[in-house]
Amino acid sequence: MARAMDPGPAPKKQRFATARQIVQAYSMTRKTDRWIGAWVLGTFVAVLAVFVVLGIVFDHPVYLSIVGIPFAVLSALIVFGRRAEKAAYATVEGQPGAAAAVLNQLKRGWTVQPAVAATPKQDIVHRAIGRPGIVLVGEGSPQRVGTLLAQERKKLGRVAPDAPVIDFQVGSGEGQISLKEFQRKLVKLPRILQPSQVADVERRISALSSLGMQVPKGPLPKGMRAPRQMR
C-alpha cells in the first residue's frame, strides 16, 4: 500500500507566501503613505481596548480580551487593505495605461484588449467585453479621447449594433473620473448579456480586427437590451 503523502509543508509555504505578500504590500504602501503603520497599529489597539473595557465592565477581562484579539486583527487588516488600495491608485493615477491595469483585474468572463486605439500624444482607448456589454475606456486629453471613443463606437456599431456600449474617460480633465471611481462603477455594471451573446460579440469584434476575414453582418441574438451609456 502506498504511503500517504504528508500535506504539512504546503500550508506552511502558503502562509509564508501570504506573509511575504503582506510585507511587500506594506513596503510599497509605506512609500506613499507614511502613516500606514500608525493607522494599522492604532486600529488594532483601539478595537482591543474596547473589548478590554467590556471585559472589565462585565467582570471577564481575560476572556473578552482574548475574544477581542481576532476582531482587532481583522479591523487592522481592513484598514491596511483600504489604505494600500488608495496608495496603489495614487501611484498609477495619471500614468498612461493605468485604466488598463484596472481592467486586467476583472474576474473570469471578461475579455480585455488594451490600447485598441491611440494617438501619438498618448491618448489611449482600451476595450473590455463581458456580460455588461462592451466597455470602452479612454485616457488622455478629454477632446482627443472623446474623438477616439466616438470612432470606436462607430466601428462597433457596424459589427455589433445591438450590443450595449458603455464608455468612460479616466483622468483629471473635465468630464473624466478617477481610477478609483472607475473601478467602483465598473464592478457595479449590470449583467445584460448571456454568455452565448458575449461569445458572439467577441467573435464579431475579432473578425473586425482580423485582416482578410469577412465581417459578419446581421443582428445579434434576440434578448439584448438597448445600449446604456455612462460617462
Number of domains: 2
User: What can be said about the biggest beta sheet?
Assistant: 4 strands, mixed
**CA radius of gyration:** 24 Å
Succession of helices and strands? HHHHEEEHEHH
- Strand percentage lies at 5-15%
Q: How many alpha or pi helices?
A: 7
Could you list the spans in which at least 5 consecutive residues all have pLDDT below 50? 211-231
Q: Mean pLDDT score, rounded?
A: 81
Euclidean distance between termini CA atoms: 64 Å
The computed structural class is alpha+beta
Q: Helix amount, in percent?
A: 40-55%
Instruction: Find the count of extended strands (DSSP E, 2+ residues).
Output: 4
Spatial strand sequence of the major β-sheet: 1-2-3-4
Tell the overall outline: elongated
Transmembrane segments: 36-56, 62-80
Keywords: Membrane, Transmembrane, Transmembrane helix
Pfam family, one: DUF4191
